[in-house]
Design a protein that fits this description.
Largest sheet of chain A: 5 strands, parallel
CATH superfamily of the largest domain in chain B: Thiamin diphosphate (ThDP)-binding fold, Pyr/PP domains
CATH superfamily of chain A: Thiamin diphosphate (ThDP)-binding fold, Pyr/PP domains
Number of strands of chain A: 7
Helix content of chain A: 40-55%
CATH architecture of the largest domain in chain B: 3-Layer(aba) Sandwich
CATH architecture of chain A: 3-Layer(aba) Sandwich
Structural class of chain A: alpha/beta
Strand content of chain B: 15-25%
Oligomer: heterotetramer
Order of helices and strands of chain A: HHHEHHHEHEEEEHEHHH
Structural class of chain B: alpha/beta
Distance between the termini of chain B: 57 Å
Largest sheet of chain B: 7 strands, mixed
Strand order of the largest sheet of chain A: 1-2-3-7-6
Bound molecules: thiamine diphosphate, magnesium ion
Number of helices of chain B: 12
């Protein structure tokens, strides 16, 4: 893997005010804690459905999403919950979604990270098919350009998803129309069990940007500020009318594809090296400590806040009712008014 | 957002499709569709068109001829040959408040955008509450010697998907009124035009730009006593022809034009069966798991007590629409086939 | 091309799936499927597997665990995430004499390969005379809290396409015998496994590597006198449960397991209706233009004289399979729903 | 348009023995004559269905197909009938196909250039959906590699078809697996009415080969020998185990997209320039005359032979019966034996 040396680290430059650097630390640590706790609950059989861990990739997720403004839109995948949290999802409602409750963003209609909040955080409700949101991001970006609005669309997908035809169509189209969109590839080196070299025949995905006449950059996804800076540059270029860009952010998927997968196909030493040397959360925390942006006490406080928020979210989720069985067909057609009304809260039990 | 004044004379670049009506003011089905698009674009500037060769060229069937000059390249968008992204573009812009109308050069190529249609467009609102006022339109149907890849009737696939209304009009006025309703609908709508009808059928169509036809309302095209023929699209015309012929032979067939195939107007269908007690379901979509199957099953379940004969179905076999005239004629239900089926039912 | 000797003990890398049977020799549905694949690969080296994560990982559901070690990377191919090309690769290699079996990680992702499936695979032989012995397989169906994108029943889409046989087995022995028949069939076959059944149902399965189950032959799973329940897939198990319960209440329900949904074994279905005069069609695929619609329409047309009650249908509404247990349970036909429907029919 | 100067012309080198150079002239002239005559019949209302003219692109079609051996396979589109003729289709059966007769390659089941002859000329029966045969070519190429056979698959599509996701999937996959396949793009500068710049955002399609780590070359499609040499090189590389290549062959579509299209969107001077200066048939004929490979008499003889063959084909087609209506469902399933038996010749009339 030939990622560049941390640009920010080298320069010892702080690209953001301290408060914002600290906020980034919050999102990184929140993501890590959430991921670990949810996995534990899943293993204990206390969490229904599936989990898709983003551990090890927090630098990518926080870095790209943090570069967006509230009016910008985000089109993520199953793996990108951290990016959605960074963009503004409410942890409580996220957890209600995981437990299939009415207060989840999809009102129990979907689970886990198949989530989104268009009218709030401006994120697309995730669909599994890869990378099916890429073409949709084209449409949002076109809308901004057509209306002359200073917004940008950003879409994320994995390394494996780049083999799919939709990926090509969306990049090509966005370049033909010079749309304000940032294409992010979260290269975590595996697509389920499939390594990069079985998905694409070139050393990097970033170099494929040339085929679309757009800038492409490969960054170290384990260093959040490098990701952030590249994303910021691409976002602002798009915002200024400079058209689309491609960002490949490289890290490693620390956990299995989903909760059930032990990922024994990942070489042990590769994983250990990443965990030891390239932990995006710990290295960033150490950097902020070194820079004096935070103290050990600040970090402890942050951690305590995160744990409190998690507990609150968990309690909220478990207290939220299940959707009413009789509502199952509601919300399909706009005219039934389901999504404009408060959801029925009579609920039901899992036993049905 | 005002209605344009009607320009008299032949339509050219930037001129209204109304200029293409016949001298006595009738519109072909194709012109009626163009009028609907034009009027809705005049009325609501959130409406825009996208598709392959719809701008400079005016569309493979010339439905959007003159639109580029009138509405400009921001609202009449020539796209790359990328159907998945045509749909994605429509969805994304609808999420941002636009009301896209996407043309597929042929309905056959909807299969190339199938995943974005059935996975995103059909399911997004139910899961997110975000309305997607998207219209997908395109020429469907056979009978024009265009063979397998330019003759498909994809309505069963998309009616099955759930979450997309599917309209298959048979007449110019219906096409106009229903397309306008589709564009004003907040849900995804698939609007399947029939290329055999495009230039064959004409009639007077409303001038009032707010004259709409309701979606999911079938229409009895011909009253009859003995047998109900439930059908839609080009087969309506075949059924009417068969009914005319049988009238002379003393058999009275009612013809129900579904107009919308999903969601289905069960009431009008069932009311007709209550009257005639005999049902023939004719569809141009394949027989197996086609629209005809659904209509027949609905009648069998909900009008059982009224039935004096089996619910008969007439549809092509599930195989590629063949090119050769002898084969295509054998493949598609013909007037004679419909006549025979009605006779058989009425003799039951 | 010889049959491998059975290795005793637990299956591991390169070991036969038979090693995964229970101690008394029963196989789960999942193991039965693995056995079918294994035996056919032993028998005929033109057979090869392709799909995402089927090799090193052994497949998302571990159906092909151990296959890579036994058959090597030339015959167990991990592919990019490119469903259109998975199908294209299968078609092209079949044209050159191979017999590919492609796994879709979930049947949901068949929509991502829809165009190559319905435009190429389904239509090529009719137009060219070149046989395409391709099997597309994957886990379908709901009831496992996997929500919209991991629960689909795509059989109506592909049964409608024409040119592809569509199999939906409910039992391990059927799964094994039918998959073997599918692989030996010279036509395209879609083999839809049901993930709810995978590890839930087990039974003895044949050891003879040439024991086949015939395609397009339904099977009466339970004899009955009063009502025929026509169904397939996971719903067979629900129907059997309902029938058991009703037996005690004095109602005798016959359960017909279609096994193949296209082409349909009409004869077995109609024979059952002749006997019971009452039909309940249960499907897990959506109601509107679903398999149930076709079966009901067929019965209504061809068994009309035998019917003493309307042909009833029980299927989920056409909308995304919801995640929440309360919603998914309301969405899917349950044993109680089937019981109620049978009772209503038998009281007609 | 920045195509290179004719390589062969420059060198005055003859890359093939005279007999083969002459054979190429035959195919070029056959294609041109066929195209013109069929269009005339179409205009007179004497030809049913559609026609997709390959005029102006004969250099591309003959050049790439002539580089294939009989055991190699060809996966063409609607536009590439000339390539199929070059690969060995029988003109008589081609014409029977156009007229919907039982002796057409599809036995009347499909029309015009939706044709193929797998067991003879080894060409795929064309489908409309673009570029739907690209993924299929992957499978054929894989079969050759797997069996160690020295065959190559070649697929052709248009410039517009490259915007479609399948194009990317197939190229990517072929490079990951290093398959013996040659990807040809017949860049005739228009996709129906849509010019290159509305389909892709880079100057050439050839440069996109880099995104797949394969060799890519752009050749002058109006000079058949340049096309042939590039195709030959790619085919032989594939045959030797060197993996896939991309060839972009540039010419201009002289006629409309199909018979009904006057193509007024093509700039008149562009068209006139191509017709005057870059006629692939005339320039090649002149070259062979200049080289002394053929005499004027040879050319006249060739032309006479072609006209005779056309008439014979036309007569054959019109004499061939229509398929029997009762056979309409036959040939769907292999087991009905339709395709292994002689077709029923009772026929039927168009009137039905
Ligand atoms: C079109 C499609 N095919 C198959 C799948 C099943 N699937 C889910 S995730 C996954 C691997 C994705 O890999 P990558 O794109 O690298 O994303 P990651 O999960 O590593 O973030 C696969 C094959 C899918 N979701 N969509
Ligand atoms: C997937 C798909 N969408 C649309 C069409 C309709 N169509 C037929 S040919 C054509 C233009 C093709 O252009 P190009 O690829 O450049 O090939 P050419 O016809 O110029 O050879 C279009 C849009 C199609 N055949 N397939
Ligand atoms: Mg990945
Ligand atoms: Mg072209």
């Amino acid at each position: 893997m030939a990622t560049k040396v941390h640009r920010a680290a080298k320069a010892d430059a702080r690209p953001l005010p301290d408060e914002r650097l600290k906020e980034i630390l919050y999102f990184l640590k929140l993501a890590r804690y959430f991921d670990e706790r949810m996995e534990a609950l899943y293993r204990q059989g206390r969490l229904p459905g599936a989990i898709y861990s983003g551990r090890g990739q927090e630098g990518t997720h926080v870095g790209v999403a943090y570069a967006l403004e509230p009016g910008d839109s985000l089109f993520p995948t199953h793996r990108d919950l951290t990016a959605q949290l960074t963009k503004g999802l409410d942890l409580k409602r996220v957890m209600a979604q995981f437990w299939g409750r009415i207060d989840g963003y999809t009102r129990g209609r979907d689970g886990n990270s198949h989530i989104g909040d268009w009218y709030g955080a401006k994120t697309f409700t995730v669909m599994s098919h890869l990378p099916i949101a890429y073409p949709v991001a084209v449409g949002a970006a076109w809308a901004y350009k057509r209306r002359g609005e200073p917004h940008v669309a950003m879409a994320i997908c994995g390394d494996g998803a780049t083999s799919n035809g939709r990926w090509h169509e969306a990049l090509n189209w966005s370049a033909v129309f010079q749309l304000p969109v940032v294409w992010v590839v979260n290269n975590n080196q595996y697509a389920y069990s499939t390594p990069n070299e079985r998905e694409f025949p070139v050393p990097t995905i970033a170099e494929r940007a040339a085929a679309y006449g757009m800038p492409g950059v490969r960054v170290d996804g384990t260093y959040v500020l490098e990701v952030y800076e590249a994303a910021k540059e691409a976002v602002e270029r798009a915002r200024q009318g400079g058209g689309p860009s491609l960002i490949e952010s490289v890290s490693l998927r620390w956990r299995g594809h989903a909760g059930h997968d032990p990922a024994t196909y990942v070489p042990k030493d590769l994983l250990e090296r990443y965990m030891a040397e390239r932990d995006p959360v710990r290295t960033y925390e150490e950097q902020l400590l070194a820079w004096g942006v935070v103290t050990k006490e600040d970090v402890a406080e942050l951690q305590a806040r995160i744990e409190r928020e998690f507990e609150e979210g968990h309690e909220f989720a478990l207290a939220s009712p299940f959707p009413e069985p009789g509502d199952v067909t509601k919300g399909l057609w706009v005219e039934d008014g389901y999504w404009r009304s408060e959801p029925g809260r009579g609920g039901g039990t899992e036993a049905g | 957002m005002t209605t344009a004044t009607v320009e008299a004379g032949a339509a050219g670049h930037g001129a209204e499709p109304r200029g293409k009506r016949t001298e006595d003011g009738q519109a072909t089905y194709l012109v009626a569709i163009a009028e609907a698009l034009w009027e809705e674009m005049e009325r609501d500037d959130r409406v825009y068109l996208l598709g392959e060769d719809i701008g400079v060229y005016g569309g493979a069937f010339k439905v959007t001829e003159g639109f580029l000059d009138r509405f400009g390249p921001d609202r009449v968008i020539d796209t790359p040959i990328a159907e998945e992204t045509i749909v994605g573009m429509a969805v994304g812009s609808a999420m941002e408040g636009f009301r896209p109308v996407a043309e597929f050069q042929y309905a056959d190529f909807m299969s190339s955008g199938f995943d974005e249609i059935t996975t995103v467009l059909a399911r997004y609102h139910y899961r997110s509450g975000v309305p997607l006022p998207v219209v997908l339109r395109g020429p469907s149907g056979g009978g024009v010697r265009a063979s397998s890849f330019h003759s498909i009737n994809p309505e069963p696939w998309f009616a099955h998907a759930g979450g997309i209304k599917v309209i298959c009009p048979a007449f110019p006025a219906d096409a106009k009124g229903l397309l306008k309703s589709a564009i004003r609908d907040d849900n995804p709508v698939m609007f399947l035009e029939h290329k055999w009808i495009y230039r064959r059928i004409k009639e007077p169509v409303p001038d009032d730009p707010d004259a709409l036809e309701p979606i999911s309302v079938a229409r009895v095209r011909r009253e009859g006593r003995d047998v109900s023929v439930i059908t839609y699209g080009a087969m309506v015309h075949k059924a009417l022809e068969a009914a005319e012929e049988l009238e002379r032979a003393g058999i009275s067939a009612e013809v129900v034009d579904l107009r919308t195939v999903y969601p289905l107007d069960e009431e009008t269908v069932l009311r007709s069966i209550e009257k005639t007690s005999r049902a023939l379901v004719v569809s141009e979509s394949y027989r197996f798991v086609g629209i005809g199957a659904e209509v027949a099953a609905t009648i069998a379940e909900k009008a059982f007590e009224h039935l004096d004969a089996p619910v008969a179905r007439l549809s092509p076999p599930n195989l590629p629409v063949p090119f050769s005239p002898t084969l295509e004629d054998a493949f598609l239900p013909q007037v004679a086939d419909i006549r025979t089926a009605i006779e058989r039912l009425s003799a039951w």
